[in-house]
Design brief:
By secondary structure, the protein is α+β, with helices and mostly antiparallel strands. The protein has three domains: 117 residues, 2-Layer Sandwich (Alpha-Beta Plaits); 96 residues, Chitinase A, domain 3; 202 residues, Orthogonal Bundle (Trigger factor, domain 2), CATH 1.10.3120. The strands form three sheets. Strands 6, 7, 8, 9 and 10 form a five-stranded antiparallel beta sheet that branches. Strands 1-2-4-3 form a four-stranded antiparallel beta sheet. The radius of gyration is 33 Å and the shape is elongated. Its EC number is 5.2.1.8. Involved in protein export. Acts as a chaperone by maintaining the newly synthesized protein in an open conformation. Functions as a peptidyl-prolyl cis-trans isomerase. GO terms for molecular function: peptidyl-prolyl cis-trans isomerase activity; protein folding chaperone; ribosome binding. This is Trigger factor.
Length: 475
């Protein structure tokens, strides 16, 4: 087999491979010899079928198998011999001329093909103990725990029917019919709907207009849907709701005690508070970690500047772009609605794709050098969590798909591996904790969350560079 490098430019490589016809012939003969003792043909005793007869019957199909083996084995061996890691599966090109292909299968011509691929660049990992991170830490207060306990208790609160007018905190049972420009709209009608005044479950201005109504009253409520309302056909529209009050019920006194805790399946009010505190600390802890991770990845982004494989960047950009355009379409919006243009959005997401790929390669290299591993148990837990998002009747099918599809499993492993590498880096970086208020911890959290998952929507024209720079999803 003759191997010739025909392109070596930057990260791009092309290799031409020629397998002489005599090599193909020797492989074919070996396969025919092996089949001779196994094949059963009418008129021949076992093991006595002439090779010439086997060649006439199976020559081309066996040669096709030989060619496929060469493609698979040689691609891997060539890369190993060259000491190169391809960024993606090499692209194999061979003749599309049927006559030439027939000659190869008949053993009358050399088999030639080429491999085109990009290599993963050599990355020299720098000392990351010097990375400085200021980790914002927030201590959950007793008052926050009490407020959350009250909200939980309110969710199981009981109500007693009353004859008087509805007040703030009362539960009002209503029938309603929503209209825009005098026409009823889909999803705008319901019967026996319970509305607790002050819970803000309906669009702004709706619940407040129920105050003062009593059972049997009818009223037309006028409201305006928010400009950012999820249903694009209703967003920003003025609407009227014809209301009929069925009954009004007052909330019973809210008492936080062991009896309430038992309604929630817990043994005591103290246990309820303990669980709530743990949930809040975990919630704010995730925010803390996310901000620390963002600082870490920003530091790595500053440290490592290298050419990223073009094909990987293309694939990452396409993933982002498909999500962006799909989300805009679902919301009934355009790039102009997001104060940008398609060209500007493409430029921004291209930069983001390049950053993601570079950081992904850096994290992969660090993980490899630090011996980071994702255990089978961790994979199994994550796989089960993913499957549980699907309807129960589909879960076994989804599970089988993942277990039989290495690439799908790789998509489960990638975020687990990334988080473990981040943990490894944070354990060795120069991390200083800084006590902050709740407001400080959550400041700009919406913008930063948008930057972390930039696929959600197109960016505002005023801040694309800032948001793209913060994005920290390095998958």
């Amino acid at each position: 087999m003759q191997v010739t490098e025909t392109l070596n430019s930057g990260l791009k490589r092309e290799i031409k491979v020629t397998v002489p016809a005599q090599d193909l012939e020797s492989r074919l003969v070996a396969r025919l010899e092996d089949a001779k003792d196994k094949v059963r043909l009418k008129g021949f005793r076992p093991g006595k079928v002439p090779l010439s007869h086997l060649r006439r019957m199976y020559g081309k199909s066996f040669m096709a198998e030989v060619v496929n083996e060469i493609l698979s084995d040689s691609s891997r061996s060539i890369l190993e011999e060259r000491g190169e890691k391809p960024a993606m599966q090499p692209e194999i090109n061979m003749t599309e001329d049927e006559k030439e292909a027939e000659k190869v299968l008949d053993g009358q011509a050399d088999f030639e093909f080429s491999m085109a691929y990009e290599v993963i660049p050599a990355i020299e990992i720098k000392d990351f103990s010097g990375i400085k991170i200021e980790r914002p830490v927030y201590d959950v207060s007793d008052e926050e725990v009490d407020d959350q306990v009250k909200r939980i208790a309110d969710s199981v609160r009981t109500y007693e029917d009353k004859d008087g007018k509805a007040e703030d905190g009362d539960k009002v049972t209503i029938d309603y019919l929503g209209k825009i420009d005098g026409e009823a709209f889909d999803g705008g009608a319901a019967e026996d709907s319970d509305v607790v005044i002050g819970h803000n479950q309906f669009i702004p201005g709706f619940e407040e207009q129920l105050v003062g109504l009593k059972a049997g009253d009818e009223k037309t409520i006028k409201v305006k849907f928010p400009d950012e309302y999820a249903a694009a056909h209703l967003a920003g529209k003025d609407a009227e709701f014809d209301i009929k009050v069925k009954k009004v019920a007052a909330a019973e006194e809210l008492v936080i005690d062991d009896e309430l805790a038992k309604k929630l399946g817990l043994e005591s009010a103290d246990k309820l508070r303990e669980i709530v505190r743990g949930q809040l600390e975990n919630q704010f802890g995730q925010m803390t970690r996310q901000k620390a991770k963002r600082q870490l990845l920003d530091a790595l982004d500053d440290q490592y500047k290298f050419e990223a494989p073009e094909k990987l960047v293309e694939a990452e950009f396409q993933n982002i772009w498909n999500q962006v355009t799909r989300d805009l379409e679902n919301a009934g919006r355009t790039f102009e609605d997001e104060d940008t243009t398609e060209e500007e959005a493409r430029e921004e997401y291209q930069r983001l794709a390049e950053r993601r790929v570079r950081l992904g390669l850096v994290l992969a290299q660090i993980g490899e050098e630090q011996g980071v591993q994702v255990s089978e148990d961790e994979m199994q837990r994550s796989l089960i969590e993913s499957i549980q998002r699907y309807p129960r009747h589909q879960q076994q099918e989804i599970y089988d798909f993942y277990r039989q599809n290495p690439q799908a499993l790789a998509n489960i492993r990638a975020p687990l591996f990334e988080e473990k590498v981040v943990d490894e880096l944070l354990s060795k970086a120069d991390v200083t904790d800084k006590k902050v208020s709740r407001e400080e911890l959550m400041a700009d959290d919406e913008d930063e969350a948008e930057a972390e998952k930039p696929k959600a929507k197109a960016k505002k024209k005023a801040a694309p560079k800032k948001k793209a720079a913060k994005a920290d999803d390095a998958e």
